[in-house]
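Reading group handout, session on sequence-to-structure problems. Before we discuss, look at one worked example. The prompt was deliberately terse, the way you'd type it at a terminal:

> structure Prohibitin

The input record follows.
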Amino acid sequence: MDIEKEKKFNKKIIIGFIYFIITVVVILLVFSSFTVIDAGHTGVVVRLGKVSDNVLNEGFHFKLPIITNIVKIDNRVLKTEVESNSASKDLQSISSKVSVNYRVNTNSSAKIYKNVGNNFETVIVNPAIHECMKSVTAKYNAEELITKRARVSSEMEKEISQKINPYGLNIEVFNIIDFDFSEEFSKAIEAKQTAQQQALKAEQDLARIKVEASQTVEKAKAESEAYQLKNQQLTDKVIMMEFVEKWDGKLPTVTSGGSALFDMSSFINTNGLKDDKKGK
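And the output record:
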């Protein structure tokens, strides 16, 4: 009896263990039969190792357990910064740094995973940026990289786009963060800017001097013309009238030994002048 009880007990344990295993398997199958795609992502369906062209969008999805795997691809804007050492057209050493914001096209998620995998930034994006930075920098002199920065940036963005677009990668924002030149070149640029500023100041000073000289000449001409006009208007009669207007009515006399030798009034017709003054 004890042996039979022991057998029955062992049998129950085995059956219970089997039920437990089945329950665990069922739970695993249930949880592996669906997936949730987060916002800003797509799901690439891989069934028995084969990548399907169908891509799952955001939300809840059912899938075949065990044989189907869902690989999530981030389709949000991603950012990478790349530094590169290159040479300009005039063989100056340039250290440059750029920032690229890009995203994976949702329709290309399966394609890029099939051809590249999830490490597309390391495999495609960064090498393309390095190559384009070097090729575009070599087209310009070091000074032009400063004066034509917007044009250089546009060319870099265009060339990078041409390399990564076929993989389903699109550039959203491209920025040149910095151009770093050799110390000797930086000093030469600074000296040139100083010389240009001094030359501009000299031109401005010369223009100011010319204006001031012109003003002085015009003022002298005006004074000369006014003087000439005044001289033309000064007749003997006008001079005498001005004298009379300022005269206090007393005439000087010349005396000798207490008696007048002659009176100045005999030389001036005061009545006539005053009459003329009244007439005016």
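Points for discussion. First: The helical segments are 2-31, 109-115, 120-137, 142-147, 149-164, 183-233, 236-246, 270-279. Second: Residues 235-279 form one domain.
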